[in-house]
Amino acid sequence: GWTLLVADTFAGDVGSIYSWSLSITPEVLPPAPPPLVVQAQTPLAGCVTPPRSLPRTGTRQLTAPLCRTNGRMNITTTVTGKAKYKVVRKSNGMVSLKTNKTRGKITVTWSAPASAAFSAYRLTRSYRL
Predict the structure, then answer these.
(1) Measured distance CA(120)–CA(43) in Å, rounded
(2) pTM of the full predicted structure?
(3) What is the pLDDT of residue 6?
């Protein structure tokens, strides 16, 4: 709340107020900044190659060499599962999965971190051998 105080500070004992006014000016805030537009990250063409299936014995490429997103982030390939497999990572960044007479479930995840202008990328596929 607020209080309006009118005081007579003139030395004489007589005085009159014939009119008065009060103006209130609200604080003007700057306009809110426009919302930040975050684009979805997607792998560059042919970069992530999720196979339709995995063989019980054989090799499948999962990630192409130098795999990046449209946001220029490196794509990480992670493989987990309860099956016998070997992840082959070449120095150029190509990732392949090698299986040898195995049964079980394998999960492959391709991911890239978010940046100021792009959301995080994540793709997960599960396979039964």
Answers:
(1) 11
(2) 0.71
(3) 73
